[in-house]
Specification:
CATH topology of the largest domain in chain B: Rossmann fold
CATH superfamily of the largest domain in chain B: P-loop containing nucleotide triphosphate hydrolases
Structural class of chain A: mainly alpha
Helix content of chain B: 25-40%
Number of strands of chain A: 0
Shape of chain B: elongated
Largest interface: A-B, 23 and 29 residues
Shape of chain A: flat
Helix content of chain A: over 70%
Strand order of the largest sheet of chain B: 6-7-8-3-9-10
CATH class of the largest domain in chain B: Alpha Beta
Largest sheet of chain B: 6 strands, mixed
Oligomer: heterodimer
Number of helices of chain B: 17
Radius of gyration of chain B: 27 Å
Strand content of chain A: under 5%
Order of helices and strands of chain A: HHHHHHHHH
Distance between the termini of chain A: 37 Å
Distance between the termini of chain B: 21 Å
Amino acid sequence: MPIQNLKGVLRLLLLAVIFFAGVWSQSSGVIDDFIFYLPDVQYLAAQHLWLTAISGGLAILVAIPLGVMLSRPSMARAAESLMQVLNVGTTIPTLAVLALSMSFLGIGTVPAVFGLFVATLLPITRNTYAGLKGVSPALMEAAAGIGMSPAQRLLRVELPNALYVIFAGIRTALTINVGTVPLAFLIGAGGLGELIFTGIDLYDPVMMLSGAIPTALLAIVVDALIAITAFIVVPRGVNPSRA
Amino acid sequence: MIRLDNLTKVFDTPKGAVTAADHINMEVPAGEICILLGPSGCGKTTTLKMINRIIRPTSGKAFIDGEDTTGLDTQDLRRNIGYVIQQIGLFPNMTIEENISVVPKLLGWDKARYRERARELMAMIALDPDAFLKRYPSELSGGQQQRIGVARALAADPPVMLMDEPFGAIDPINRAVIQDEFLKMQQELKKTIMFVSHDIDEAIKMGDSVAVFREGQLVQYSSPDDLLAAPRDAFVESFLGEDRALKRLNLVRVRDVVSDEIGTVSPGDTLATALARIDDFGYQNSILMINDKRQPVGLITRALARTTKGYCRDHFQNVPDTVSLDDDLRKVASLMFAQDTTWLPCVDEQGRVCGQITQRAMTHHLGSRFRPRSSDERQSDAATEE
């Protein structure tokens, strides 16, 4: 059983590495340094999440109706060109969006939320539109043919069938949003970026990591939360993860 | 009853106006199935979809039970018409029960009523309610899905149904089963049905009447038998196929052709009597022997009767298959070919001999109404009927 032996050896090796990392961090005082930043991390993480929640929430509230509107047959002609505009919008770097936003709205939370909102808006709109457009024409004909009104068709047939794709858009957008919030610090909105960028400027890796590691963890947690929500909310018949 | 009055649809395409349906006039009597038949692009689906206004008519009217549908609210109209499409179109986000209950819910039925109705419909389409109602469409086979599609269309018990190639996407074996089930249901439900098909065999099997379309025109509207016996023009004839005379065998029952005059002998007769009867009735080869309950028990052949002496009961051969009055001629012809005979005895429900069916009578029956195409005659026909 050489493979099992190898696994055993690897496991031992891993334990040793963790042990020595612990020994090193204890002896060098890194842990104490991190603990020193803990109150900052707590405060800034809350601020960070707040920025994400506000900008992401606004983006969802605007993007889904926008996507629905663009997918209506009456908009068919305008929709494709508008989607192209949105696609081009996605290619603008978030930092540039924030800078532009700052030049119009000044410094602070408002321009940051606005910049993040714009960056988050696009993926959700695009997925909402694509998801609704992807609903099979046969379903739409059946829904119309049995006498559903346009609103009933949207709420009972189109949205439930597009929901999985819409959630995928929200998931991508919010995860990116959490990862982008640190940039908001640059225009004076706070968040974990404060530790990251100050750490870089002061050449203080512990300070930098105290910002970076919680940011990464937050992104993972937000991603997981949305995945769980999608699992519960999307009807079983159209939910690939529950098939 | 469905009546179409000069129903017309003109599509504006980049290549110019295309008339998909050109002044269609027809009437489907209540409780009957009318098949709209034709090659693709002939306007049959357009005509169907103008009735529930999935496609808006350019001009003309559709009447349902005498009522002009033009003035009705589109949603109300559609909720009172059962609609089945080829792609089935079950909502994948809903369970089977929710799918079936969609229309009753739209009509505002209370929960107990539409749940009860769902179970009733499942029984009607022969699917176990407990096993299927809570499942999702993706968990069902194509045939089961289309049964649910039919059930959904029937849910609110609409008097009229529109079916757009409903069984077209189902494999041939399942299709035949579903067709039979559907016909059986229709015998009780007596819906007025318009049914689009491009399959001539399906049309003959399912239709009380058949409307043949070509390039937006209704070319011929008649019973399947008339259609096969007397296609109006070369197009209809070629669409029906060269074996249209054989296809008619499906449509004619033994009772339409049977001759109740049949010579028989009983076991107690002598072979000399048998020979005399064979000659009297002008039979070529043999005569049927029946017992005192008039059940067929054997055959006495001419060759044997001529060369042998004795009683029939000692010298008979096994009787060939018998046919019953409700069998179709296709089965009869098949038996005749298989057994190399030109006649078969017919029996009633109790198994008593009630007549015979001969190849001559069959060919005569089919031939008497079969008209080979002769263009002059056809045109005058068309003129008088239009």
